[in-house]
Design a protein that fits this description.
Blueprint (H helix, E strand, L loop, with lengths): L8 E7 L5 H14 L4 E7 L24 H6 L2 E9 L2 E2 L1 H7 L3 H6 L6 E8 L6 H14 L3 E2 L8 H4 L9 E4 L10 H21 L1
Parallel strand pairs: 1-2, 1-3, 3-5, 5-6, 5-7
Antiparallel strand pairs: 3-4
Helix pairs in contact: 1-7
Length: 203
């Protein structure tokens, strides 16, 4: 049984952002979710993973989305994960959070919920697709219904920056440019809209 009101679908957009690019993608995805009647977006982030010699992360971030709590996973109708790329894989803070979800895996918290992923890289060939694919693996273990961006989205075939069939993406460039291209923003919105529509259908 869904744990949200019948006819409503709250999509959890959970991300880690260091330079701001992933946060920009998250907001574009949230706009896509908001375009679907009966759906809304819940933006959450994960704290950084600091060496033990540094101060621990504050209870709440100074700006941006609040830190995620386990009840966010229980209450959502769908999940969209975002992380910058680190050597072709997700960043350590997102991996650390996922590694704490043993109880949620055992209880089936995410089973049957639609899920998708998004990322940002500094360069065009910085490992976007490998990052997106590896981010999908734990979602499969959690029993999520995986979705990407289908090629019925025309911009997927014409984009010269970010955007992949495995999930939304952004090429930040050498200066970590946070501004999304028109194609990147449109494909991110399309991903949010698709997950929201799937969540309503599955409900």
């Amino acid at each position: 049984m869904p744990c949200y009101p019948v006819g409503m679908a709250e999509i959890l957009i959970l991300y880690y952002s260091r330079g701001g690019s992933v946060a920009q993608l998250a907001r574009a995805i949230a706009r896509g979710v908001g375009e679907v009647d009966g759906a809304s977006a819940r933006l959450r982030t994960v704290p950084p993973v600091a060496p033990i010699t540094q101060a621990a992360a504050p209870p709440e971030p100074e700006d941006g989305a609040p830190y995620v709590e386990k009840h966010d996973l229980r209450e959502c109708a769908g999940l969209i994960l975002g992380s910058p790329t680190r050597f072709g894989n997700m960043a350590a803070p997102m991996k650390h959070f996922i590694d704490t979800l043993g109880a949620e895996w055992a209880s089936g918290t995410l089973v049957g919920k639609p899920a998708a992923v998004f990322t940002s890289t500094a360069t065009q060939h910085g490992g976007q697709e490998s990052t997106l694919l590896t981010m999908l693996l734990p979602l499969l273990h959690h029993g999520c219904v995986i979705a990407g961006i289908p090629f019925t989205e025309p911009l997927l075939s014409s984009t010269r920056t970010g955007g992949t069939p495995y999930g939304a993406s952004h090429v930040a460039g050498g200066k970590d440019e946070t501004r999304l291209s028109d194609e990147e923003a449109a494909l991110a919105r399309a991903l949010g809209k698709r997950i929201a529509q799937l969540a309503l259908r599955l409900a």
